[in-house]
């Protein structure tokens, strides 16, 4: 019960509920005022204008939000005018429908924000079919008041941002910390399990993609170049929490180890990994609690459990050495020590978040220069050239736009032929649930149908029990507020609430509400079927054939990250910024690959060609990234020896192998070959250097010098990590090249 109350409190304090309230006020206020004043005919277009332009109000910089809503307002006005003027002329109307549906949906090439503006345009086209205006004056009045509604919604949105300026940022930070905590706990499972490791790895792909999406939005909000100089103390706090969350995520990625080596080294000894696993769980739970504190303003949780778990992890290293004795225990002890170092760094970042949230004045200030910060922003290309580049059947969005246009024309023609009363409801269902991905379209269709039926049943029950129009108006508004609040979190519930809202609006205006309900359910079913069938049969875009460009981007990003790590090893002071930028690009590229893989899993089983091969490639890319991050993190956190010739030779060997995989996908040849024997010799020398240091340590122990100084420990850690991880990277890159070649032969060449 206590947990349920806490979750309800978090929901009501969330920016999602805040957004629902914004939409509710933007719709209810003009409707109530104009209705009371007797100008009901003006209330409808203003309310519609506000409703149509609400989708563009997403978290992000104020400038981009304003631009999105203004563009959306202009687009909805233009499309409404075109459809209303074309309605009396069926051939013109059909052409207008097809052209608008195609080009407006193609706006999604400009990114997620543009896709929401695109949705507003498509929604305006559909709703225009429900508007009964024929004269020039009536149409112009409708269009003008739609624009007024859009500007009114913008004013409401900006007002909320002034009153609650940090609501979106706090929600994003809270969501990010919560996801990161869950991800850290998942990593704990990966450490000791063997049976469910594949299952947990697939879950990790989802977390990585979700966290990267949050980071991208937060970068736009918090790192965007500001015209005014400086930042407020509150903005400084948010930025500090964000930067620590990024470091935690990157440390979690770097913490991924060679599980085969761990399984082999700790076979029958997994109890020595339990303290590290427990520490991950404790830190994960702490991050989740901090995410809740951000929204609830509760006292910070106690840190005792964190410190106790860290001490136990450190003790497990000594216990391992005491039981298995040196030198036999050295490899296992170094693995535990490296793992402990990662976790200690993780705990330092969690403590930094605690200090920031506690308003400790001594908390570090952000020293990132403005010109450096701007480099971490992902810039979107808004030139017309982006549209032109996608005017090809090779483009997934081009296929989707064409498919959507055909589906809508077919649905409208079907409505005309069978004289369906509200064809626009079928069209509405199509634009709401149809997505470029078949799997997502199918899932949304199912949720839409179930939600609509549930909403219809609830609405019928209430309509049969009471005939109070004031109650209908109140319930319509409340259900709409909650629908907008839940639409990102639970689409099925949102669909049910939207249905309830629509039914009550009709009941308020028209007493024949039950007839409305049965037609809404039927039209939703027809629209869902058309959307799913169209996605499956009209220029289908199966993810297995769309992976090529995503794989190319991932290979290029990992290769660039590898070279940036090499540069960092040569001179950390001069290459830190370049390293951080390449790391960010690599994480984003792998996140996009993970997202593509998730879409693949949603395709029909018959279309998931070479599923195991693709899963292997995605896993190899992810592990490659983690191995590079592990080396880079060690270099950044320790005083290292100069990079050896052998290190550079092996980096070149790995880089050439990655380039070989790229050449296969791009059908090019640009390798600078390096002799395998030379690379093997370099690897052997690195391993011998570790053995030499280990031998010296053994000699010291024999002479009674059992105390290990920090310099010797770091030297052993460095030699062990560099030799093992470079060997691991050589193996990973070789396997990736082989898998890429097989992917090319079994999928691309047969496409």
UniProtKB/TrEMBL annotation:
What Pfam families does the database record attribute to this sequence?
FUSC-like, FUSC_2
Q: Which InterPro entries match?
A: Memb_transporter_dom (IPR049453), YccS_N (IPR032692)
Q: Where is the Integral membrane protein YccS N-terminal domain?
A: 73-342
Predominant location: membrane
Q: Which UniProt keywords apply?
A: Cell membrane, Membrane, Transmembrane, Transmembrane helix
> Where does it localize?
Cell membrane
Question: Taking every annotated instance into account, which residue ranges of this chain make up the domain Integral membrane bound transporter?
Answer: 411-533
Membrane spanning stretches: 25-54, 66-86, 92-109, 114-131, 137-164, 401-418, 448-464, 470-487, 494-511, 517-539
Query: How does this protein sit in the membrane?
Result: Multi-pass membrane protein
Q: What does the sequence similarity comment in the record state about its family?
A: Belongs to the YccS/YhfK family.
- Give the matching PANTHER family: MULTIDRUG RESISTANCE PROTEIN MDTO, P-HYDROXYBENZOIC ACID EFFLUX PUMP SUBUNIT-RELATED
In Swiss-Prot or TrEMBL terms, this protein is called YccS family putative transporter
Gene name?
yccS
């Amino acid at each position: 019960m206590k947990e349920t109350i806490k979750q309800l409190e978090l929901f009501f304090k969330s920016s999602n509920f805040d957004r629902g309230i914004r939409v509710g006020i933007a719709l209810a206020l003009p409707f109530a005022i104009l209705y009371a004043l007797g100008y009901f005919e003006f209330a409808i277009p203003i309310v519609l204008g506000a409703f149509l332009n609400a989708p563009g109000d997403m978290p992000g910089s104020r400038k981009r939000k304003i631009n999105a809503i203004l563009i959306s307002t202009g687009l909805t006005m233009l499309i409404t005018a075109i459809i209303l003027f074309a309605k009396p002329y069926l051939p013109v109307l059909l052409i207008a429908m097809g052209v608008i549906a195609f080009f407006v949906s193609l706006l999604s090439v400009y990114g997620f924000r543009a896709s929401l503006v695109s949705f507003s345009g498509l929604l305006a086209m559909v709703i225009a079919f429900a508007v009964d205006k024929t004269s020039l004056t009536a149409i112009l009045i409708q269009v003008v008041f739609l624009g007024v509604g859009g500007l009114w919604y913008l004013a409401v949105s900006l007002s909320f941002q002034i009153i609650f300026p940090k609501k979106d940022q706090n929600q994003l930070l809270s969501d990010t910390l919560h996801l990161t905590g869950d991800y850290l706990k998942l990593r704990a499972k990966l450490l000791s399990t063997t049976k469910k490791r594949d299952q947990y790895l697939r879950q990790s792909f989802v977390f990585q993609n979700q966290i990267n999406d949050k980071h991208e939005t937060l970068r736009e909000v918090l790192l965007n170049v500001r015209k005014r100089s400086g930042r407020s103390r509150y903005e400084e706090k948010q930025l500090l929490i964000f930067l620590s969350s990024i470091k935690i995520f990157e440390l979690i990625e770097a913490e991924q180890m060679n599980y085969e080596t761990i399984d082999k080294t700790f076979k029958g000894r997994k109890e020595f990994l339990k303290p590290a696993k427990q520490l991950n769980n404790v830190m994960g739970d702490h991050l989740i609690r901090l995410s809740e504190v951000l929204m609830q303003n509760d006292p910070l949780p106690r840190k005792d459990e964190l410190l106790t778990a860290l001490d136990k992890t450190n003790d497990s290293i000594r216990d391992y050495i005491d039981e298995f004795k040196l030198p036999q225990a050295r490899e296992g002890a170094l693995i535990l020590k490296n793992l402990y170092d990662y976790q200690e760094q993780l705990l330092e970042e969690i403590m930094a978040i605690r200090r920031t949230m506690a308003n400790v004045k001594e908390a570090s200030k952000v020293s990132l220069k403005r010109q450096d910060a701007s480099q971490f922003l992902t810039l979107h290309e808004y030139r017309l050239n982006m549209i032109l580049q996608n005017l090809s059947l090779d483009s997934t969005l081009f296929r989707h736009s064409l498919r959507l246009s055909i589906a809508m024309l077919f649905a409208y023609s079907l409505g005309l032929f069978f004289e369906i009363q509200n064809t626009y409801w079928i069209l509405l269902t199509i634009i709401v649930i149809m997505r470029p991905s078949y799997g997502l379209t199918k899932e949304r269709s199912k949720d839409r149908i179930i939600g609509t039926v549930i909403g219809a049943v609830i609405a019928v029950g209430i309509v049969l029990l009471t005939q109070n129009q004031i109650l209908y108006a109140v319930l319509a508004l409340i259900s709409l507020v909650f629908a907008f609040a839940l639409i990102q979190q639970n689409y099925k519930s949102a669909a049910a609430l939207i249905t309830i809202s629509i039914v009550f609006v009709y009941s308020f205006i028209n007493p024949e509400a039950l007839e409305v309900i049965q037609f809404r359910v039927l039209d939703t079913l027809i629209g869902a079927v058309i959307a799913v069938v169209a996605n499956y049969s009209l220029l289908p875009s199966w993810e297995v054939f769309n992976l090529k460009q995503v794989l190319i981007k991932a290979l290029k990003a990992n290769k660039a990250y590898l070279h940036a790590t090499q540069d960092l090893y040569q001179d950390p002071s001069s290459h830190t910024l370049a390293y951080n930028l390449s790391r960010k690009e690599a994480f984003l590229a792998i996140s996009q690959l993970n997202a593509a893989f998730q879409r693949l899993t949603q395709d029909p089983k018959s279309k998931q060609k070479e599923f195991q091969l693709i899963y292997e490639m995605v896993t190899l890319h992810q592990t490659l990234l983690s191995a590079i991050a592990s080396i880079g993190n060690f270099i950044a956190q320790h005083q290292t020896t100069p990079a050896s010739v052998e290190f550079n030779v092996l980096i070149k060997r790995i880089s050439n192998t990655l380039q070989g995989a790229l050449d296969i996908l791009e059908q090019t040849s640009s390798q600078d070959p390096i002799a395998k024997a030379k690379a093997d010799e370099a690897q052997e020398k690195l391993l011998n250097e570790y053995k030499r240091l280990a031998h010296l340590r053994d000699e010291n122990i024999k002479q009674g010098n059992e105390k290990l100084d920090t310099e010797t420990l770091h030297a052993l850690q460095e030699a062990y990590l560099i030799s093992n991880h470079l060997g691991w990277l050589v193996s990973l890159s070789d396997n990736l090249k082989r898998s890429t070649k097989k992917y090319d032969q079994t999928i691309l060449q047969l496409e």
